[in-house]
Design goal:
Number of helices: 0
Shape: globular
Strand content: over 45%
Number of strands: 10
Helix content: under 10%
Strand order of the largest sheet: 2-10-9-4-5-6
Structural class: mainly beta
Order of helices and strands: EEEEEEEEEE
Radius of gyration: 13 Å
């Protein structure tokens, strides 16, 4: 059973930044391509960013390209999301999960609120 814990959310003003962390309770050999996803109130969960397992190749939703950066540390089973130039429309609960095959059980997520 994989457990995912997302940390680092909070309240930030427009234009501000936040750094999110995801810790996955998996063995290093089991690491998969990983992604960040988000769900705003009344909307479906959507893809935000992804990073490959070994080469670190990244992919981003158009809405966050140039503002968000995903990275990972396989030795620590950790994935990060650096979010800059935040906008009110970035407000959502942010989750991490694998980006291949059926998702693992979702964690609690971390709330990001962008508001003045």
């Amino acid at each position: 059973q994989v457990q995912l814990v997302e940390l680092g959310g909070g309240l930030v003003q427009p234009g501000g930044f936040l750094n999110l962390t995801c810790v996955a309770s998996v063995r290093t050999k089991s690491m998969m391509p990983m992604g960040w996803f988000r769900q705003a109130p009344g909307k479906e969960r959507e893809f935000v960013a992804a990073i490959s397992q070994r080469t670190g190749t990244t992919d981003y939703a158009d809405s966050v390209k140039g503002r968000f950066t995903i990275s990972r540390n396989n030795a620590k089973n950790t994935v990060y999301l650096q979010m800059n130039s935040l906008k009110p429309e970035d407000t959502a609960v942010y989750y991490c999960n694998r980006n291949r095959g059926s998702p693992w059980a979702w964690g609690q997520g971390t709330q990001v609120t962008v508001s003045s």
